[in-house]
Amino acid sequence: MDISSSSSSGALSPDANLDAVTSQTPFAVPRALQLLRSDDPDFKLQAARDIRRLTKTSLRCRRQLSQAVGPLVSML
Questions:
Q1: Does the predicted TM-score (pTM) go above 0.70?
Q2: Are 10 and 41 in contact (CB under 8 A)?
Q3: In the prediction, which pLDDT does 44 show?
Q4: Nearest to residue 44, comparing CAs of 70, 18, 17, 62?
Q5: How many angstroms separate the most distant Cα atoms in the chain?
Q6: Do residues 51 and 43 lie in contact, with contact meaning Cβ atoms separated by under 8 Å?
Q7: Nearest Cα to 50, choosing from 75, 19, 76?
Q8: What would the pLDDT profile of 19-72 be if each residue is shown by its tens digit?
Q9: I want to staple 43 with a disulfide (CB 3.0 to 4.6 A). Which of 8, 18, 36, 38 is the partner?
C-alpha cells in the first residue's frame, strides 16, 4: 500500500520511512549525542526527545547513551 502512495512522490515517502527506521539504528545514537552537544536549545530539546524514545526501546541504546546523562541533567 505504501508503494502506491509513493509512486506520485517517490522521494518523499522513502525519506519518511528512512527517518522511522533510522530511529532504531546505531546511527541514531551518535546523532542524538551530537544534537545534545549543540549550542542551539532547539537541537538539545530534539536530542532529549530522541534519547527518551531510544532508551524506551533498547537496552543497548541505554548503555550507549549513558554519557548523555550529565548534559541532560544540566538542561534541567
A1: no
A2: no
A3: 93
A4: 70
A5: 46
A6: no
A7: 19
A8: 444 445 678 899 999 999 999 999 999 999 999 998 887 888 888 888 898 888
A9: 38
Residues whose CB is less than 8 angstroms from the CB of residue 2 and which lie 6 or more positions away in sequence, other chains included: 13, 17
Q: How many CB atoms are closer than 10 A to CB 49?
A: 12
Chain position carrying cell 526501546: 57
Q: Around 69, how many Cα atoms within 13 Å sit in the side-chain half-sphere?
A: 6
Written as one letter, the residue type at 47 is: A
Cα-based torsion angle of the residue sequence 39, 31, 61, 41 in order, rounded to the nearest 10 degrees? 20
* Whole-number Å distance between alpha carbons of 76 and 74: 5
Distance between CA atoms of residues 62 and 58, nearest Å: 6
- Cβ neighbors of 53 (< 8 A, separation 6 or more) are 23
